[in-house]
Each structure stands twice: as C-alpha cells, then as structure tokens.
Amino acid sequence: MSAPHPVIEYWFDFGSNYSYLSTLRIEQAAQLAGVSVRWRPFLLGPVFRELGWSTSPFVLQKEKGEYTWQDMARQCRKYGLPWRRPSRFPRPAVLPTLVALAGSGTHWVGGFCRLMMHLNFAEDRDIDSAGTVAEVLTAMDLPVASLLEDAQSADNRARLREQTVLARARGIFGAPTFFVGKEMFWGNDRLDDALAACREPASFSP
Amino acid sequence: MSAPHPVIEYWFDFGSNYSYLSTLRIEQAAQLAGVSVRWRPFLLGPVFRELGWSTSPFVLQKEKGEYTWQDMARQCRKYGLPWRRPSRFPRPAVLPTLVALAGSGTHWVGGFCRLMMHLNFAEDRDIDSAGTVAEVLTAMDLPVASLLEDAQSADNRARLREQTVLARARGIFGAPTFFVGKEMFWGNDRLDDALAACREPASFSP
C-alpha cells in the first residue's frame, strides 16, 4: 500500500546554524520514520550571492541576526544539543563539503557531518582545513589520504559546482532544505513535516 | 511554586499570513497551557520600512515568497484551518488593527481577530473598510457605532503609532512575535515553545 522506499533529500550547509540542528537530528528521526536520507551538502554562499545577498541574512539583518542566537540557544536546549555561538559566522567549509559530497552515498556520511557540525557549533572551531578534516576522518577510522584526494578531485569539485546550479533550479534559498519528491520544505522546523510527507503516497507521484 | 499568572504577549499583523495561523491557534493553545494572552495588534509595514524594506520579505524575495504559499497550504492542512491564497498581499488592515487595539483587553478581541483573519486568508476578502469591520462586529452582537468611534479616536490612533515604536524598541522584525517576560519568540513555529516558557519560573524574573 505505502511507498516501498521513502526518501528524504537533505540539502544543508556546514556554516548554517539551523543546518546544525537538523544534521544532528535527521538520521535518527528518519530511521524512526522508516525513511532513508539522501545527503545533499552544498554551499549556501553562491546561492545567496545569486539571490543578491552578499552573505547570510542573519548578518545582513541585524535584528534577525541577534534574535537567531537567542533562538539557537533555546532550540539546542530543547533538542538536548550542545551549543556555543561560533565566533566566526558563517564559517567557510569548502573542504568538509567536498568530503561529504564524495561520501554522500556511504555509511559514514552522517557521522562525518555530525562531527564537523559539532566542531563548528559546539566547539567554535574553524573547520575548513585539511588538518581538521583529517582529524575527524581519523577518529572515524577512515582512510584519510584517499578520501581527501577523492574529495579534492576535479570531478568532485565540478559536482559541487553543479550542486549550486541544482539548488537554484529547485528554488532553494536557504538551509536546511528538505525535498520529498518535488515538494520542498525549508528549515529545521519543517523536518518532522517533511518526514510525515514521506509516508503520504501522493508525495511519490511523478 | 510556579508563577501565578503566566502571560504571553502576542504581537501580530492582520496582513501577515503566519499571523493568521497563530491568531487562529493561540487562544485555545494558551488556555490548555493555563496561560493568558495579551493581544498586541500592530502594523508591520512601518516596522519593515524602518528596517529598510519597502514591503513584506515574501514580496521582495521571489523564491521565498513562492515557497511561502506552498508552506501555508501545507500548514493549514496540518492545523485543520481553511486556506485561500489572498489575491492581494500583504492586505492593508489599519481599521481592524485599530479596533483590535481598542478592544485588546476585552473578552471579544480573540473572536474579532479570528473572524477578520478568516476573511483575509480563507475568503480572500479585503478587510480594511468600515463596512467589513461593521459586518464582523454585528455578527458578534457588539455595539458597532461606539466601537468604530473609539477605534478611530485620536487617542487610539496615537496608541497604534506607539505600538510601532515599542515594536522597534523590543527588536521585533516580523510577525507573529511572542514575548514571555523579556524573551522574544518569532514565528508561528515558536508558539508552543513560548507557551512552554510561560511555565518556567525563570522567565518571570525582572
């Protein structure tokens, strides 16, 4: 009766604070809902620039930005997640994004993304260096050298640029963004709705 | 032990689509939580202009605007509320705002606000006319002439202008916005969190 393989597409950026919340939540929530996650790391910066914004709206709009940090502290308390306001925001994360993209179909992608997010939003560490990424991959007992090489290959870099094009084509204007079939859900606040939509047969019509 | 009189301050605008959701939800949700609602109708337009925006971000940002209408349809389905996308957005509503402001401490304010919101977001009707407001007040069996007179008095108009000043001073940048003590919560998605905060004694410290 129900769709055999419900899938949620998860578009996120390592510098995005609300992506921190959903990256830490999504795998467990999806598992409970019987849904699999398709990890879609991308860079929000180029998307913002194409929309005419020089950086995050939380930086451009002072009032909204100040509120966001209060909201984050409360949301992290609600979800039981550690939180430390990053001293640099939004943090660049090209290399972690390339690694997550190269590993997006693997068993380790979720764990890798959670650890990188933890460094940014719970430990206030810069994350866009080979040293930091290698530290995380080593802790996960993964082959550091070959993964860093694959991640930085011309092919994978081209794939990351394509992610920006795809994001724009699909109407993405922020992160996190979830897709269930063609239906778009924006923001960590919509994760539960998106997972619920995975179970509605209508969502899987072409 | 707990605070004797938990109160949620509810700042909303009759033209704001997400205010439609919380206006229809708040009184019942607050009652279940043992919280009373302090109605704070205001005009978002002047606040947006002071922030440098000529109109709603949903109009200024095409991608976000298009998403918003999909999201509204889904949210209304989730909450069991009727929905029809307004042909005019954001709809002017100075007179309903004046009436709600004049009646903000009365027993009928919640019912009045729900009916006005219903006209805008479920019946796609213009709401900023004495005829329409009178229709609603009549349906509620309220003294139309005296309420319209009070609402449009110089005192009440001055009070509405003060609402804009207060909104800016408190850091409001959108609607709906809830306050629990000094803590601000933005968006219909935070209504439940704000009501939960009403029950935390810490929220009531000066």
Automatic annotation (TrEMBL), chains A, B:
Keyword Protease (UniProt): no
Transmembrane segments: none
Keywords: Isomerase
SUPFAM superfamilies assigned to the protein according to its UniProt record, in alphabetical order: Thioredoxin-like
Span of domain DSBA-like thioredoxin: 8-193
Single Gene Ontology MF annotation: isomerase activity
Alphabetical list of Pfam families matching this protein: DSBA
EC number(s) from the headed UniProt entry: 5.99.1.4
Catalytic activity: 2-hydroxychromene-2-carboxylate = (3E)-4-(2-hydroxyphenyl)-2-oxobut-3-enoate
Family: Belongs to the GST superfamily. NadH family.
Classification via PANTHER family: GLUTATHIONE S-TRANSFERASE KAPPA, GLUTATHIONE S-TRANSFERASE KAPPA 1
Protein's recorded name: 2-hydroxychromene-2-carboxylate isomerase
The organism of origin for this protein: Herbaspirillum frisingense
